[in-house]
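Quick one:
INPUT:
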């Protein structure tokens, strides 16, 4: 069952999941016309394939460790690290250890 998106004025915890990480699915926290925020849960060894999104985004590591491969190399993110990517930057994400991430994506209109 998917979690309902937040409404204006509601709060959600983005604290580390700790012992509950393996039982917690990835979920969108909210989506507005130009912004989406989600918690992504990746277990060790799992990977998001190479992809790009039109708008800029940030990936904040809440717990665990991930490797983000970029065109010019890679960045290892650990708890507390935040990575910014410009729009259309191809990347993939691989979990080095069980991890949860906070994704913030700027959604662009098809017209730019």
């Amino acid at each position: 069952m998917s979690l309902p998106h937040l409404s204006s004025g509601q709060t959600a915890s983005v604290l580390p999941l700790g012992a509950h990480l393996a039982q917690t699915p990835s979920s969108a926290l909210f989506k507005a016309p130009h912004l989406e925020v989600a918690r992504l849960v990746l277990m060790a060894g799992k990977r998001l394939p190479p992809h790009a999104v039109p708008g800029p985004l940030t990936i904040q590591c809440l717990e665990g460790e991930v490797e983000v491969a970029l065109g010019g190399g890679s960045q290892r993110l650990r708890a507390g690290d935040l990575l910014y990517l410009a729009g259309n930057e191809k990347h993939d994400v691989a979990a080095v250890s069980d991890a949860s991430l906070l994704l913030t994506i700027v959604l662009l209109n098809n017209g730019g």
